[in-house]
Every structure is written in structure tokens, then in C-alpha cells.
Amino acid sequence: MTSRQDQSDKFERLRGRAEELIQKQPNVTPSSSLDILELIHELKIYQAELEIQNEELKEAQNEISELHHEFEDLYEFAPCGYVTMNNNGIIKRINLAGANLLGKYRKLLPQSGVSQFIATGYEDLYLATLQKSGETGIKQSIELLLNSQKDQPMWVRADIQADRDENGEVIQWRMVLVDITLKKETDAALQNSQDKYQKLFYSMVSGATVLEVLDRDQSGRIIDARVLEVNTAFERLTGIPSHQAVGRSIRQIWPETKNFWLDKIGQVMRTRQSITVEGFHRELEKNFLMTVYWLDDQRVGTTFIDISDQKKIQQTLDKARQTLEIQVKSQMADLRQVNTQLQKEIHARKQTQIALEQKAEELETHSIGLEEANAALKVLLKEVKNERRELEEKVVCNLDDLIRPHLSAIASEKMSQRQRLLLDTIRRSIDDIASPLSRRFIIDGRHLTPIETQVANLIRQGRTTKEIAEIMSVSKSTIDFHRLNIRHKLNLTNKKTNLQSYLRSFT
Hints:
With 507 residues, the chain is of the alpha+beta class. Helices cover 61% and strands 16% of the residues. It has 15 helices and 10 strands. The protein has a 5-stranded antiparallel beta sheet with strand order 2-1-5-4-3, with helices on both faces.
């Protein structure tokens, strides 16, 4: 592009050529030449104006370019999603935030419908809102659940605006998407909390109300309060339905309410500290225990229970206590007389006690002689017990050493069925005799089988495994198996304790 100086030089050259052409024409009068010069001068002025306008246009174009880049940045990096759709609802343009909300790569979104990203159950609402925006030309707002690829749901608020021509036909739709997932979660949590509060409030056994300060006197003392909310227990305790209580003041419901109750509300409003009081409500003719809680600068909450029955019981108890006190005073006089008589009896018993102490000394002397005789008897009993144990042990040993081997030898011979039956009977009889004796050498409660008891008794006697196997006519491995079971039942497994010594310690 030529500079302004080049444009001026060009204009001067054109002007010179124009003057030369005018001078060569014979029919050109001096006045005509003057007119041409004036026209050239005007053209030059017009050219200067055009150059100025051209500079202004350049500056405007630069400003528009900067604004365009700024708009692009604002559009692309806006915190909310911007979507432009054609008249068929197909995406023409979408910014980064919009693509992130829809959860798809941005280049794949054009030529796609927004409805395919909306969760099942919300498509009809979206299409109906789109149609309403197109029909009315007014911006419509709805909340939609999107098909999120994340674990948690994605909620958006969609502001839809239709651009229409002069005939009312939709040219395109513009939609703004705002992420309201956090708001939805907060609303759900708040609603859950509200539901819990409502459930707790209305299911309370105690009556409950929410009161709003309605009127004060010149000194600031509360003289009336309005009922904002009551629970089911309130209706039961007062007999007033909620629709007759909510919205009315305490003075309207109970005109003769004492200032005592309102003063307690005023105290809580001043101190913001909960208090519990009890009193008699004249109009309801009931005694109540009431707790007042501070909620805010205009409201308090109250809970109350009917304690009329407790009061009646308390009065009955007070009367009973007074009667009891009278009876106690009467009985105290009788007790004093009895006490005097008891003092006399005590003196007589002391004399008797002295005599008993003397007798006790005599008995103690006699007791010493009995203890000495008792010690001698214990020694004698111990000797008898040891002799009996030795006798029992000899019986068991004799049975095992002298009789059982012969029985085993007889059993190895050929015998008739009757002989074997008799032999088995003899063995059982011997077992019945030996078993109670041998079991005395084993700790009670160890649950040893009869065979294990027999093996334990032979081990205690000092028999080897081979000798025990020959006596019982079994293999050595069988005796080893029984030894392991006996050690296990006597809690000797993995211990370096000699089984024979341990068994002998029981005798």
C-alpha cells in the first residue's frame, strides 16, 4: 500500500497532465480552466477526507480484531458452556467448557444432537423446552441430567434462546450450560437434613413449637409471640389442631397466659442460652416442663411435656412424707422407752458374757487336747491310706503279671465257643476289678479310655513298651500310639517330661 506522500505526488502528476490537456484544447476558455482547477482542488480535498476515513477504518478494524480475539478467549475459556445449534437442533459450534460438560472430544461434537448426551427420562423435557423457546422467542431455563462417564451424576442448567427471522421461523438456537452438580448435591443434602428435621420434629414425644417475637412493650419486654410451627405432640398435649395454632399469637390462643412464660422467652432472646422451667398453665389446667432454645434474633424453639401426673404423685408423696414424719415422732417416744429397757438388758447380758468368757477359756484348754488327738488321727489315717494304696497297687500288678499273661496264653489255644465265652467273661470280670483301682493312679477328668488307663498303669509300674505289648498281646506300634494319646491328654505333648515319673506323681 502507498504512503500518503506517494498519494500526494501522484495527485500532483495527475493535476499537471490535466492542465496540459486543457491547454492543448483550443475550445477551452480560461474560465473553463479555472473550473477544472477548482474541481481538482475539491477532488484533492475529497481524497484527503478519504485518506482520513481510511486511517479511521484501519484503527476500527484493529480494534474489531482485538475485540474478536478477546471475544474468542472469553467464549473459549468461559466457565460455562456455550452451544450454538441450527434450526434442527444440531450442534454448529461449542466452546471448551461445553465439550467438557458433554464429556466428548470437541471435534466430534459438531453435527451431533445435544439430546444424545441427555440422560434417559429428560429427553422429552429438553425437546419440549426447545420447542417452547422456538415458539415464543423467550429464553427458557431447565435443569437436565447428562450421561456422565464418571461415577457421580452430572447436572446442568440449560438456558435456551431461539433466534428467529421476521416470519418467526427459527434460524438457530443458542444454549448456555452451567454445571449445577454441586448445587444439586447441596440441595439433596439440605433436603435430606430438612426431612430428618421434619421427621424428628413431628415424631417427638414432647410437644414442640417455633415462636416468633411479635410485640414488645416500651421497656423491650416481650408481651406476645406468634406460633410459626407445631408438631403432633403439641396438638395432643394442648388439644388445639395445628391449623388453629399456626399463624396466631399466644395471646390469641390463650388470652390469660401468664407473663412468666413470655419472660422466659425474653430471657433466652437476651442470653442466647437455653433454659428449662416448669409451671402451671391456668387455661389448660396442666403443669408443664418447658425448655426454650434460641434460634435467631426473632425466633425461639420450645419443647414441653405434661408433668401433671408427676405433680400429683409428688403431692401424694409429700402428704405421705408428712404422715410418716408424724408416725416417726410417735414411734421415737416408744423407742426411747424400749431403749431404756434395752440398757438394762445389756447390763444383764454383759454379766452373762463375763461368765461365757470364763467358760470359753475352759473350752479352749479342752480344744487344745482335741487338736493333738486329731493330729494323731490324721497320721494314722495317712498310714492306712498308704497301706490301702499299696494293697490296691499290688492287686493290680498281680492281676497284670500273674493272671492276664495266662489268660492271653489260654486265648491263643484252640477252644470251643463256650470256653471262649467263659474266658471273655473272666477277662471282663478282671477288668471290672482292676479298672477302678488303676484309674486312681491317673488324674481325674483326663478322659482316658480303659485300654489307655491299662497302658498308663503299666508305664507307671516301670514296664517297657515291649513288655506292655507282650502283656496286652498287641504290637509295639500300638503301645507307642497309646503312649502318644496319653501324653496328649495329660498335656505333655512337646514337653521334656518323663511319662513314668509324671504318672507316679499321682499316687
